[in-house]
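During the reporting period the student researcher (J.K.) took over the structure-prediction task from the postdoctoral fellow and processed the backlog of single-chain submissions. One of the processed entries is reproduced below for the supervisory committee.
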Amino acid sequence: MSVYVDTLRSNGWVLRGRRVQNCHMLADTLDELHAMARQVGMRIEWFQPSPPASADHYDLTARRRADAVAHGAIELDDEALVKLLRSRRRSVGERPRRAT
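J.K. obtained the following structure tokens:
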């Protein structure tokens, strides 16, 4: 079982008047996800549940991402993240979506 973080991106987040990059933290189980979130100082209110075939996650700033990696989170590039999410969709029986 594992916790994962994807690549930092500029998604328009503004904190304390300045733009910041963010990423997603997800895990194989909700227990692992919430445990890691507590370790890096996240509040349960910041949890973002997703539809069954997607990924429940937390959004992280660069500092919290670094903390998660220091606590054992696995860094994923875009390709690895897509593979993980597709694997989850198959495991719940959802048909893969076609590119449009």
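The committee noted the following: Confidence is low (pLDDT under 50) at residues 94-100.
J.K. will present the remaining backlog at the next meeting.
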